[in-house]
Amino acid sequence: MTQWGYSMTKPEGTFYLWGRAPGGDSVGFTRRLADQGVFVMPGTLFDRPTDFRISLTGTADMIEASRPAFEAATEH
Questions:
Q1: pLDDT digits (tens, 9 = 90+) for 24-56
Q2: What mean pLDDT, rounded, does the chain reach?
Q3: pLDDT band at residue 66, thresholds of 50, 70 and 90?
Q4: How far is Cα 56 from Cα 15, in angstroms, rounded to an integer?
Q5: N or C, which end of the chain has less CB nearby within 10 Å?
Q6: DSSP per position, 8-53
Q7: What is the C-alpha separation between 32 and 21, in angstroms, rounded?
């Protein structure tokens, strides 16, 4: 994800990963991903309006399939 310019927080024993939404709008960012079938949580649900949260419980195939959506989302 960092290869596309995402600022990510390394997890410490958790099953999720935090990242900074491009442009700082977590709701708009998560909606753009959802339009492509990729679902992450906007940080507004956790008082972190500029961030998003990714669950690390997906399969390797699910993660691989989401890569184009994450790359495209940085272009907005």
A1: 999 999 999 999 999 999 999 999 999 999 988
A2: 90
A3: very high
A4: 5
A5: C
A6: EEPPSS-SEEEEEPGGG-HHHHHHHHHHTT---EEGGGGT-TTEEE
A7: 11
Task: Give the pLDDT band of residue 5 (cuts 50, 70, 90).
Answer: confident
Cα(74)–Cα(21) distance, integer angstroms: 9
Instruction: Decide if 18 contacts 45 (C-beta within 8 A).
Output: no
For residue 55, give the DSSP letter: E
Give CA–CA dist 50/46, Å, rounded: 10
